[in-house]
């Protein structure tokens, strides 16, 4: 196992560590099926398209059910 220093960890998180930690948490909750795609994106402070980009960039498969598509469609229609 690698030895990681606090400084190395901070560098891994980038210039906005709080934002990155929130994004990592929402991605994990989405991956575990605890958040829908739309809710995960919202909590991460991103649009769905941006969140999908982050999932793809990190190699996370998309879990998008027909129910979620219908829910998102209703949400969009209500705008």
Secondary structure layout plus pairing:
Layout: H1 6-13, H2 17-31, H3 37-44, H4 48-57, H5 66-77
Q: N-to-C terminal Cα separation, in Å?
A: 49 Å
Overall body shape: elongated
| Helix/strand order | HHHHH
Average predicted confidence as pLDDT: 85
Brief rundown of the structure:
The chain is built from 5 helices and no strands.
Describe this structure in words.
The chain is mainly alpha-helical. The chain is 67% helix and 0% strand. It is built from 5 helices and no strands. It is elongated and about 45 Å long. The N and C termini lie far apart (49 Å). The mean pLDDT is 85.
Features:
67% helix; mainly alpha; 79 residues
